[in-house]
Design a protein that fits this description.
By secondary structure, the chain is of the alpha+beta class. It starts with a strand and ends with a helix. The protein is built from 1 helix and 5 strands.
Length: 89
Amino acid sequence: MKPIEVKAHLNSMDGKTGRAILLGPNYLFARPITNSYVFKVGDQLCTGIMNWFVGEYYVDDKYGIVDERNENYDIYKKYIKENNNNGND
């Protein structure tokens, strides 16, 4: 899946919309979780969902942080390093 910039409701902004980059599915035990995704917000990886009833993304950039202890980190960490090396964000 190619990363796409989306408008999403961010937990850190009390549900207001902001910019997030949708990276791909959220995995648990090497299987994708239905309707759960990994996003890049700023310089961190976070989890979120798509609310199909309203057609909007909701990203938990407070408590849904993907770090080294999460299996998704190894899959998506390249997106953090690429942008930091290029000076983007």
